[in-house]
Amino acid sequence: MLLNQLSPVESIHALGRFSGKPGLHRIQTLCDALGNPQDRLKFIHIAGTNGKGSTATMLASVLQHAGYRTGLYTSPYLVTFHERIRVNGTMISDSDLSRLFEQVQAAASTLKLPENEHIGEFEFVTAIAFLYFLEQNCDIVVLETGLGGSYDATNIIAPPEASIITSISLDHTAVLGNTVEEIAQTKAGIYKPGSIHITSNGQADAVYEQLKACAPDLIIAPDAEIISADLSGSKFIWQGKTYQISLPGLYQVSNASTVLATLQRLKTKGWHISDQAISDGLLSAYIPGRMQVCATNPYILLDGGHNPDGIRKLSSSVKSFNITGSIRLVIGMCKDKSIRDAIKEINFPVQKCYVTPLQNERTMDANELAALMHSICGDTVICQDCAAAIAQAKTQAAPDDLILICGSLYLVGEAEEVLRADRKGQNISL
User: Fold this and answer.
1) What's the mean pLDDT in 94-115?
2) What pLDDT, in 10s, does the model give residues 131-148?
3) Which domains does the chain have, with CATH numbers?
C-alpha cells in the first residue's frame, strides 16, 4: 500500500520507531522548516524510566486547575493515537491531526538528511504537537520524552521552566545503556542551565551522583508520609499538608511528591498556583492504564508495569490493598524487555495465570512466557488473545477476587477495548 493511501495515523506508524543515527539534527531540521514553533512555547520537561506519564498527567491537571491553558504530550497511547496530544484534557481532533499531518509531511518532503536517515515516527509526532500547542495558545506544555533524554526529539526545546527526571531503572538497555548510571547520564541530558532541576526520591545513590554531575542544583523531592492507601487512591502528608489522590498504588504517592516539589519551585518563579488548585488537580488526575480499576465484583485492575522496577512497585501496591479473595493474573509482554527479571518481582500469591500474546509485532511468544510464568505462579494457561484471557478469568473468579492485567501498555490498551465492549454488551475479539 502506498503511503498516501494510508490514514494520517497509519502513515505516521509506517515511519518506524528508529530513523537513523541518534541525534537531534533531524527534528531540528524539520522544526526549522516549520518555523520552530517550540521556541514560542513554555515547557515542563519530564524524563525517567517509570512514573513520567503519571507525573506529567498530575502536573497538567494542577496547572489546568490553576487557570493555565495546559498542553500535555505523552506516549505511548492505549486506545487512540489522539491521547498523546491534549490541551486542557481534550485530545487533538481528527481534523486538526489530519491538517497538521499534511503540514509536517510537506515540510519533511523538502528536507535533505544524511544518507539512510529519515524523519521517524516520534520526531514527526513531536513536530505536530509543537505546532498544535502553539496554535492552541498554550500557556505551558508538560512534555514527556519518548526514550532517553539527550537525543530524544523533545530535547530541542530551550531551557524549560522545570526539568524533571522520575524514577530511573534498567529498561531499553540496548539503546540507553546497561547500568542505571549510564541511563541516568542519558536522561540527565534534559537538564539545562536556567531551569529548575527536580528528581524523584528513593533512587540509588549512583543515580543521584550522575544527575548532580549534570545539575549541581538538583532538588530531590522530599518524601511523603502515607496515611492510607487502597484501590480508591491514597491520602498522604507532604511538607506538613495533607493531600489526596484518586490514583491507586503506593508509587503514585512518590510521583505526587515529585509534582509537589516542582510546583513549589514554580511558584517562586512567578507561576500562580493556589493550594486549592493543587488539591483539586491532584485529586482529579486520571491516568488510564496505571493502577486503573475497571470493575468490581470481581475487581479488575489494569497496570502498564512491564520492567523490573515497574513490576516491583506494582507488587508492593497489590500487597498493600489487603485483597480478601484470590488474585488472577492476565499477562502479555514484549520480547525486547527484561522479562525474566521483571516476573521475578511478582511477590504476591497468584491463584491462576492467563498468558496472552499481544496484538503487536513485539509480542513475546505465549508458549515461552507461559513456561516462565508457570515457574513463578504455578497454574498457568495460554489464551488465544486478550479477550479470551479476560473472559476465562472472569468466568472462574469469585466476587471478591482480583483480576490483575499487566505486563505491557499494549496489553492494557487491548484490555481497555475488550472491557469497553463488554460494558456495551458487545462481543469482540482483538
Assistant:
1) 96
2) 999 999 999 999 999 988
3) 3-284 (3.40.1190.10), 292-423 (3.90.190.20)
